[in-house]
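dude i think i finally got it to work??
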Amino acid sequence: MGVCKKVVSAFSFSWKKKRELAATQEELKLPKHKLITESPTRWGSRHAMIARVLEQEKAIAKVLSADKKTRHLAPSWQDIEVLESVCKALNPLANFTDALSGEKYVSVSYLKPVLHLFNEEVLKPVADDSELTKTIKASVISYLNEKYDNAATDDLLSIASLVDPRFKKRYIKDDKLEAVKSRALAQMLDECQSTSQATPEFPSTALGGGKSDGADATPAKLQKKTLGSFFKSYTKSAATSGLTEQQAIETELNSYLQAPDADSETNPPGMVEDQCSDIPQSEPPGKTLLVYSCHQLTLRARF
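look at this
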């Protein structure tokens, strides 16, 4: 890292070096990019600095070697090998960091799938990796696994994955699946009881801009029912008739888990309702709580 910082500093504080670098880039037909300086407040700037130095390696070496005062700063082949090993290990992490930094979509439910992907594919050592690259990958994997190994954190992430229609139980360990389902069922029961005990509040104003005068209120337009709508409501009520509240909620949860997984590119809050549209019970227990849990877990993780 020290070599990179010294190289970048040599060009940052000299307009002549910058001019020579631009001319050499054109001569060697390299991209006309400026060197990047590492910043403590800029996430991923170290990786960006290393990648840019490797990209402009030939131009940097030619410019620095032409001046006897800066000749010693030119990276050696050993330095280049180290930088290439570090960059190779950090490349996939930079892409995942950008994807997980989004604020307009749910990302907490991605943590367990991403950890699984890191362990099984992204950071798994391959044959052409150098020893340094393998060491860096092993260190990153060890740190992440220890960071999220806490029981409370693992429970939270498991529930987050369970209520996400993209993943559900796919990344939950088999020995913990029943415990996670039991916790989800308990939360659904609790939410159902809280909803049933709450007294709904209706606005006292009439339709038509809040005026109470019946003459100014616009009557709602009656919509004609289709023949199929009668059978749809009958099917929903018949499916849960004779079941206790707990049995009905458990049926909804099992139906949700058995439904096909949603596409991984879609966003959970809007699609949970689509995934649960075929759940028999039309009242809150399962459908409302599954949507609510996604938002609750997201807020809890962000704040």
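Residues 1-101 form one domain.
im so relieved honestly
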